[in-house]
Amino acid sequence: MKNRKIIGVGYQVGNKCVKNKEFEKIIDTTDEWILSRTGIKTRYVSTNKNTSELGFLAAKKAILNANISKEEIDLIIVATITPDNTTPSCSCLIQDKLGLNKKKIMAFDINAACTGFVYALQVASYMLSDYKCALVIGVDVNSKIVDYTDRNTCILFGDGAGAIIMKQEDTNNEMIHYANSIGDHEGFLSASGLVIHEKLENASREIGFIKQNGSEVFRFAVGALEEAISEVLKKANKTLDEIDYVIPHQANIRIIDNVAKKINLNKNKLYINLDKYGNTTAGSIPIALSEAITKDIVKEGMKIILVGFGGGFTYAASYIEL
Ligand code: COA
Fold first, then answer.
1. Contact at 8 Å (CB) between 28 and 151?
2. Per the confidence metrics, is the pTM higher than 0.90?
3. Given pLDDT bands bounded at 50, 70 and 90, which one contains residue 204?
4. Each residue of 227-268: pLDDT tens digit?
5. CB 268: neighbour CB atoms within 10 A?
6. Can you give the pLDDT at residue 194?
7. What CA–CA distance (Å, rounded) separates 167 from 236?
8. CATH topology for the 4-168 domain
9. Residues with C-beta less than 6 Å from any ligand 1 atom
10. Which CATH number fits domain 175-321: 3.40.47.10, 3.40.50.720, 1.10.760.10, 2.170.120.30?
């Protein structure tokens, strides 16, 4: 698919840095265990901003980075599993925060857990014939649904948002997508409903919490990432050697290392920031993409793959010529 281009990126993580050591005070764990089993050192929790606010801050940065007038936006898609409300959607709330209520805009949310941003990017790119300028956001305030007494889960997650502006443009650059889902694994990874925004210290509710079987999710993730990367390469008629960067979902460094080993991917081609931010669910891939572009590591002219897996189970990859 040609004639669509990512022209701006931005991200925003939660305000409060939580180091591994702090978990030693609330659960039976150690800094050393968390680092060696996950690769995570810190994560950022949002104690003062809900999902739409983090998404809005990332969106503002992406609009600035794209150097467009916000009035050009006619499509807003937000990927999240932790929306402020069931309705209005985060995308409508962000439309309002951006002051775009008088603009004719299609705005809606997508729930595909950690794959959410890649799904949203794919949907937006398919829609960019009727629409001209899409704001696509992946955002989660996981601290609303993390059980801070569950040591298998709570150490993994952080809060954050990443946003892109993608425009219809006259370009020969390719964008090729692959997506899949398997709906019968609810027992391995689920969150049953929404809870109000609570601070890390006060989180004590059970309803809505993420529940997972870590090792089953791990096993699934390795196979899903491997499948998504090889299928998108096949569709794009490319080999891994031709790819400059792979930006994977930032869940656990051991998952990523396993995949890299299986497909013979040079680790220098991976962009990793999970050591700082942990797993920010739908925020993970767009935060990594935005950070890599902001740091001038991933640049115009490069060929990249975004690849994610998550609850559902869902998984997807996009091959993008920047
Ligand atoms: N601190 C110390 N010990 C811990 C721990 C923690 N934070 N969490 C789990 N353990 C323990 C387990 O209770 C278990 O103890 P046991 O043998 O006495 O029962 C032991 O460590 C090994 O558990 P296991 O689940 O095999 O560990 P693991 O190496 O698979 O790591 C995860 C656990 C959760 C870190 C890992 O499985 C994982 O990251 N899975 C993927 C999860 C994910 O990405 N979820 C989001 C999907 S988008």
1. yes
2. yes
3. very low
4. 999 999 999 999 999 999 999 999 999 999 999 999 999 999
5. 6
6. 54
7. 21
8. Peroxisomal Thiolase; Chain A, domain 1 (3.40.47)
9. 29, 33-34, 37-38, 114, 151-152, 155-156, 189, 212, 214-215, 217-218, 251-252, 279, 310
10. 3.40.47.10
